[in-house]
Amino acid sequence: MEKINILIADDQTLMCDGLKTILELEENFNVMGTAKNGEEVLELCKANKPDLILMDIRMPKMDGVKCTKILKTLYPEIKVLVLTTFNDTEYIIEALNYGAAGYILKDIEGDALIKAINDAYKGSLMMPASVAKKLAEKLSQSTVVVNAHKEEKVLKDFSQREEEIAKMMTMGFNNKQIASSLFISEGTVKNYISNIYSKLGTSDRFEAVKLLNIMFQNT
């Protein structure tokens, strides 16, 4: 059985110990260490890279969001599951934008935590229903305002689903994460993105995201 090497990052000793106890009961989990802040996470990853990190958001010295940003730049293959008691949309968006594999709340039950780790390791986007709902509400808050600029005309031409996917693209979601979050197939996501590219006049994702960021900032 393939082992998943896990690092737990949380400044609360009791939380770390509790998570460690739960995870070590699983045959395919190996808890390779714990860290109390983002700086310790980066130091530990230099010596022995884990497969997945359970990353608390609120830690001293370096918080989980900043650590995720640095970590995914240095070690893009490491999965990061953001772990927090704070059901905060801004944190969700920022962490996902930096490459986190998902966002789970600290009151998650043991069985659900184990499933989340296994699914995240396989590449699924992990997000509790309450968080997904809140994120979806934020995505639908802004409306397209028509003015004389070309970018507003392009946004006006987007369907509701295209606009939703375009916003998720600017947040750093990949096709698989978009599909998982919206409960549609990756093939369907690719079709929508092809339509978005066509309306933007580009076939490059980086260029498309850059244009979309400008468009949404101007609305």
Automatic annotation (TrEMBL):
<dbReference type="InterPro" id="IPR000792">
    <property type="entry name" value="Tscrpt_reg_LuxR_C"/>
</dbReference>
<dbReference type="Pfam" id="PF00196">
    <property type="entry name" value="GerE"/>
</dbReference>
<comment type="function">
    <text>May play the central regulatory role in sporulation. It may be an element of the effector pathway responsible for the activation of sporulation genes in response to nutritional stress. Spo0A may act in concert with spo0H (a sigma factor) to control the expression of some genes that are critical to the sporulation process.</text>
</comment>
<keyword id="KW-0805">Transcription regulation</keyword>
<feature type="domain" description="HTH luxR-type">
    <location>
        <begin position="151"/>
        <end position="216"/>
    </location>
</feature>
<dbReference type="InterPro" id="IPR011006">
    <property type="entry name" value="CheY-like_superfamily"/>
</dbReference>
<feature type="modified residue" description="4-aspartylphosphate">
    <location>
        <position position="56"/>
    </location>
</feature>
<dbReference type="InterPro" id="IPR001789">
    <property type="entry name" value="Sig_transdc_resp-reg_receiver"/>
</dbReference>
<protein>
    <recommendedName>
        <fullName>Stage 0 sporulation protein A homolog</fullName>
    </recommendedName>
</protein>
<keyword id="KW-0804">Transcription</keyword>
<keyword id="KW-0597">Phosphoprotein</keyword>
<keyword id="KW-0238">DNA-binding</keyword>
<dbReference type="Pfam" id="PF00072">
    <property type="entry name" value="Response_reg"/>
</dbReference>
<dbReference type="InterPro" id="IPR058245">
    <property type="entry name" value="NreC/VraR/RcsB-like_REC"/>
</dbReference>
<feature type="domain" description="Response regulatory">
    <location>
        <begin position="5"/>
        <end position="121"/>
    </location>
</feature>
<dbReference type="InterPro" id="IPR039420">
    <property type="entry name" value="WalR-like"/>
</dbReference>
